[in-house]
Amino acid sequence: MAEALSQDIENSDGWTTSIHCSYYAVFQYMKYLLAEKAETRISYDDQNALGESSHQYILNEIKNRINNVNTARRVRERILSLRQYRIAADYRPKVFTQEEALNCNMEANAVIKQLATLISA
What we know:
It is a single chain. By secondary structure, this protein is an all-alpha fold. 76% of the residues lie in helices and 0% in strands. Helix 2 packs across helix 5 (69-91). The longest helix has 26 residues, at 12-37. It starts with a helix and ends with a helix.
């Protein structure tokens, strides 16, 4: 969805919306990895029971499962950057450019690809 919204050259509202979708694609993928692919799994029910604090918890669980400290730190920074963009898109009057939307989408896809290689049973 983020890709389609970010590539629509006539829909600037879609660019801002795509930022939201890019972050949540990564967030949902992290949840999937923890529930389905991690060596020590955390069920969706247990993840969802945390409510609003689940974002930080899930990010910490992912980070703690990455063996290399520097890689874990960089992955965390990338995800937090996407989250900051999402917060701005959802709660601030900022209108994102198409370039920003495309960059967020590319970054989200790259993070997902990296996580797929780092987290698995």
